[in-house]
Specification:
The structure is a single chain. The protein is α/β, with parallel strands linked by helices and 394 residues long. It folds into 2 domains: 158 residues, HUPs (Rossmann fold, 3-Layer(aba) Sandwich); 173 residues, Argininosuccinate synthetase, chain A, domain 2, CATH 3.90.1260.10. It contains 13 helices and 14 strands. A 5-stranded parallel β-sheet has the order 3-2-1-4-5, with helices on both faces. The protein is elongated, with a radius of gyration of 24 Å.
């Protein structure tokens, strides 16, 4: 009997989603469509197609979203300087809304009654995906296997995979892999030895950054050009968003920039430890703050800083498509047309220092800040300024 019902599965081709694909086939009288969003993760398209075909999938969709991801998701976030809990640049969090949006687009195209994802029942991603699904298609059914099936652990998954001859990948030490998520913006690694916060992260887990100890003994210099608050060039050469971020990843990663070891507070209420690599994003964040320092006024900068923690939390919790995030984005972008110029950075063994800020903006006045005597700043007003604020102490 021909199956008319369809399920669109967010499919990576890896162990977890291959098992989910098989499980969906076993438990639902529906055709499973394998959907993959290419947002710059390390992936083998031929292998993804091969793995899906082996499991009997007829429709396999791989959409290239790299440029959209960087331009419409990463760059707006960089403009806000969003950092979660002091160090996390939200590399996984910012990718999920786009995947959810495009997955629903595919589901609508093929008139699927349901979408499915491989996020675990203890993680944040299940929330991020499902809030995205709801925003674009409130009535669609969501199948979250990790919350309903009887497979409760990584060991159960491996046994299930062996039963159905699903290939089990190995890490660099020949064991079942860490939990890894990557895209053009970052790589995250969780699980195994990292679950105990007393353990140091083994060097072999790092995928896109050289250790600072092994980084080049000579510094690298790079200049990032900005127009209307977005990066548009490297060393004077204009690049599209995808290629620009890729270039920054290469330079930053080579110099050991962008490593973070974090125990974070998940939205669902538990703590988790992860190791993140965001070399290009780290360079963008530092450079963007630097160019704003010479192009924006104090009140605008401080307002942005005051809303940043909430903006970051909204992204982390999956509220990218919320009215509140849209409202905060308008505040972030209020004076973005003034943010133009270039910033030169020095990269050396994991460190990033600012070498120069170049802009035609008049926000920064050399005459006013000069230690040489000048008439552009009226120092007689300072005493009245101080006396005014003394009254606020009472």
């Amino acid at each position: 009997m021909k199956k008319n019902k369809k399920i669109v599965l967010a499919y990576s081709g890896g162990l977890d989603t291959s098992i989910i694909l098989k499980w969906l086939q076993e438990n639902y009288d529906s055709e499973v469509i394998a959907y993959t969003a290419d947002i710059g993760q390390e992936m083998d398209q031929k292998q993804i197609i091969k793995n899906a075909r082996k499991l009997g999938v007829k429709k396999i969709i791989i959409n290239n979203l790299k440029n959209t991801f960087v331009k419409e998701y990463v760059f707006p976030m960089i403009r806000s300087h969003a950092i979660y809990e002091g160090v996390y640049l939200l590399g996984t969090s910012i990718a999920r809304p786009l995947i959810a949006k495009d997955q629903i687009k595919v589901a609508k195209k093929f008139k699927a009654f349901a979408v499915s994802h491989g996020s675990t029942g203890k993680g944040n991603d299940q929330v991020r995906f499902e809030l995205g699904y709801h925003y674009f298609c409130p009535k669609i059914k969501v199948i979250a296997p990790w919350r309903i099936w009887k497979l409760k652990s990584r060991t159960d998954l491996i046994n299930y995979a062996k039963k159905y001859n699903i290939p089990i990948p190995k890490d660099k030490k020949g064991a079942p892999p860490f939990s890894v998520d990557d895209n053009l913006f970052h790589t995250s690694t969780e699980g195994k030895v990292l679950e105990n916060p007393k353990n140091s992260a083994p060097e072999f887990i790092f995928q896109r950054t050289t250790s600072p100890e092994k980084a080049p003994n000579k510094p690298s210099y790079i200049s990032i050009g900005f127009k209307n608050s977005d990066p548009v060039s490297i060393n004077g050469k204009k690049l599209n968003p995808e290629k620009l971020l890729d270039k920054l990843n290469q330079v930053g990663g080579k110099n050991g920039v962008g490593r973070v070891d974090l125990v974070e507070n998940r939205f669902i209420g538990i703590k988790s430890r992860g190791v993140y690599e965001t070399p290009g994003g780290t360079l963008l964040l530092i450079a963007h703050r630097a160019i704003e320092s010479v192009t924006l006024d104090k009140d605008t900068m401080h307002k942005k800083d005051s809303i940043m923690p909430r903006y970051a939390e909204l992204i982390y919790n999956g509220y990218w498509f919320s009215k509140e995030r849209f409202k905060l984005q308008k505040i972030v972008d209020l004076k973005k047309s003034k943010v133009n110029g270039s910033v030169k950075l020095k990269l050396y063994k994991g460190n990033v220092t600012i070498q120069s800020r170049i802009t035609k903006s008049s926000a920064y006045s050399m005459k006013k800040v000069s230690f040489e005597e000048n008439k552009t700043f009226n120092k007689s007003n300072v005493e009245r300024f101080i006396n005014f604020h003394k009254k606020k102490l009472k």
